[in-house]
Amino acid sequence: MKPLSFSALFLLVLSCIIQSFYLIEAQTQQQFLYVDDCYSSSNYTSGSAYERNLNFTLNSLVANASQNGFYISIIVGQNPDTVYGLFQCFGDFSAETCRNCANIAAKDIRQRCPTKKEASIGYERCVIKYSNRNFFSTANSNLRYNFCNKNNATDPVLFYRQLVNLLNNLSSNAESAPAKYALGTTNNTDNDTYGLVQCTRELAEGSCLTCLREIISKIGICGGGKLGAQLYSTSCYLRYEIYRFVEAQPELQLSPPEVSTPPPPLLEPNSTAPGTTNTANPPGKKNTTRTIVIIVTTVAGLLMIATILTCLVWRTAKKKRPDGSVHEENNSVLEDDKSSTHSLVTGLRTIKAATGNFSDEFKLGQGGFGPVYKGILNDGREIAVKRLSSHSVQGVQELKTEVKLVAKLLHRNLVRLLGFCLEEKEKLLVYEYLPNGSLDKILFVEGKRHLLEWERRYKIIAGIARGLLYLHEESQLRVIHRDLKASNILLDENMNPKISDFGLAKLFQGSQTHGNTNRISGTFGYMAPEYVKNGNFSIKSDVYSFGVLVLEIITGRKNSSFRNLTNLQSHAWEHWSNGTTLKLMDPTMGDRWPKHEALKCIHMGLLCVQEATCDRPKMSEVVVMLNSSNMASSSMPSRPAFFISKEAFDSEIIAREDTVLDIRSNLSTSQGSNQSVNGLTITELYPRD
């Protein structure tokens, strides 16, 4: 590593100073609203087990504040030392804003409520709460704070009626949404009205709707017909305005109104609801508080810069291990995409606690990459932990690929990544736990295959198709999986399929549709011919793998179960050509399957495994086929790639037997004449196209 030049060092220091002042601004922008349960709760003793658990809880809440802006934590222990914690951001703010609010909230709650066993703090952008009792699932709709717009609607009665209808509809949507969040708009005489409602996500069924309906009924505290308001309770929140107020968050972005957007009108804070206490800084102290924050943060920033300069001096020299190799922290593999992966970092201690320190009792299975363990987090959620072994075929680069891709892909037919860990030489991936395991553990096991009746198999085929369609065409990224197979299809409690294992996936940019590699990775039997021969891959490579998988699901047979020179595609094509297609059906299903659906799936599978990529359908076309009643409009499949006919197979066997006889004859002759046999070569036989 070359020493940094003075200009480069100057630019780095300048960048640090600018970032420090951005941090100052971010901290002062987190507007504190209220403290709750702080003054009435009991105290804990400094240095006690409760304080240690509380520190761990707050650190967990900050570390796990994901892009979804929500996390709950439970410290398992005996009363009175058990700590329950919750953090949540309001849905109209970006992930970066949410993380800033989490850091400030965790520090602020300790300063404002020292030694208290129960406290909650609300901000304009997030809420944090902890307690020594389980408050999850219970709604607290007591109004803690509200802002009211100064301006009144032209027709207050009509405006209020339309507003309540909007907020009631959004409340119903939020109740059924996983994020307990809903955003919408309605037209009125003054302008488009934008509304947002949200609950904390741990609430029990029905509690979110109840909480929102209660604070909607309190809108009148601002006076009838106000053009904007924000109402906060501990468990739910609402906001409405006549201008767009959502931060730049693509999944939440609203379409702009047809009329020009007016500047935000001034808000007047209305202290708190009657009967509550507002402990926020009074207006006269705001400037003083801001000055103190700026001074303290500036000093901290200068200390940080001094630390950075010290580290730079240390890094200008090569730091080598005793064997001469340059030292590199494992976590650096993810430094180029911190924005999408930082929120997924999971502590090794958390994972060890969830899996019984990787106990065999929790082990779900073993793959080429290493073992998979079931785990149970403190909040009761079940997880699956993939632990990459030191000699795993899936290394740090594959883990990096999987984290970066799966973190950005959200679809009901893709497995959900919950976190990852790179500590103490461990390489761990944390996924949602799917109780029925992988498809191959049921489909290819004699005693379990009967569990997959026709309806479930058809649903699995359709779900895999939808997942691939999302990867190829509908997601914000164009992704080629490159290792689609039965063992990489996981099944949830309702036998819904989820595509997993993105360690070999390739990301396409813009209009790119194909790529090339010298490193062929995947599973033989599922890989397309153009990929095996030349390293060319595209969305049609995944289509080929999908076709093989469909034939496996229909027949109940592994592609690798065919010995010698034949394969599943050839077996299926022989029956298709001879008019005996339905003999391919898995006998464990009996005759309880619709003939037209069975023929449609086999037809579609053979279309997908054709040799020419241009002849294979796109996944969008596959989904249309699955949703249509017949295949009359579809083209007829041509002979599949890697096809070996029965006649060719029989001829090859005869040729082998003749060769063996010739060799034995030559050997016998040579032994009789005491002569050696030279120039004899044995050629390996490969499937012919």
What is the radius of gyration?
32 Å
Q: Alpha-carbon distance between the termini?
A: 52 Å
Largest sheet: 6 strands, antiparallel
- The structural class is alpha+beta
The helix fraction, in percent, is 25-40%
- Strand order in space, largest sheet: 7-8-10-9-6-11
- What is the count of structural domains? 5
The mean pLDDT is 76
Give the name of the CATH architecture of the largest domain: Orthogonal Bundle
Q: What is the number of E strands?
A: 22
**Quaternary:** single chain
pLDDT < 50 runs, ≥5 residues: 17-30, 248-289, 317-336, 648-689
- Determine the CATH topology of the largest domain: Transferase(Phosphotransferase), domain 1
Describe the structure.
The structure is a single chain. The protein has 689 residues and is α+β, with helices and mostly antiparallel strands. The chain has five domains: 31-136, 2-Layer Sandwich (Killer Toxin P4, Chain A), CATH 3.30.430.20; 143-270, Killer Toxin P4, Chain A; 328-433, Phosphorylase Kinase, domain 1 (2-Layer Sandwich), CATH 3.30.200; 451-644, Transferase(Phosphotransferase), domain 1; 651-689, no CATH class. The chain has 17 helices and 22 strands. A six-stranded antiparallel β-sheet has the order 7-8-10-9-6-11, covered by helices on one side. The chain has a five-stranded antiparallel β-sheet with strand order 1-4-5-3-2, with helices on one face. Strand 4 (119-123) and strand 5 (126-131) form a beta hairpin. The chain starts with 5 loop residues before the first helix and ends in a 17-residue tail after the last helix.
